[in-house]
Amino acid sequence: MHRGSFEDLDSLRRGAAVVNRVPLETSAAGVRYRAVAEEGKPLREIASVIGRCLTLPVVSKTREEANQHFAWFAQLATADLPASSAWSETVGWAAEAARTTR
């Protein structure tokens, strides 16, 4: 994604709308879904893309610094929580916007 590109942001919003609309229209009550574009991406890489898109600096932190900075979120951010893109693909959401923003 280019810095400050509203067209790219609009494309991401439309993609997010699709992947959130489909389960609302087609699934049973109480079922949970996650939209996953790519599997096995480290949080460092995700943070780097977000920082670049928002023109914000991204810095590395030690585990201790991260625990202090992020408080309760540090436990979630450092957990190994694998996710699959299989469901996302079955509803026709292939994360094209996500793939074209790198």
Structure description:
The structure is a single chain. The chain has 102 residues and is mainly alpha-helical. The protein has one domain (6-100). Helices cover 55% and strands 0% of the residues. The chain contains 6 helices and no strands. The longest helix is centred in the first third of the chain and has 21 residues, at 6-26.
Shape: globular
How many structural domains? 1
Low-confidence stretches: 97-102
Quaternary structure: single chain
Radius of gyration: 16 Å
Residue-averaged pLDDT, rounded? Answer: 76
Largest sheet: none
Give the topology string: H per helix, E per strand: HHHHHH
Pairing-aware structural class of the strands and helices?
mainly alpha
Helix content: 40-55%
User: Terminal Cα separation, in Å?
Assistant: 6 Å
Give the strand tally: 0
Tally of helical segments: 6
- Beta strand %: under 5%
Task: Tag the structure with descriptive keywords.
102 residues, mainly alpha, 0% strand, globular, disordered C terminus
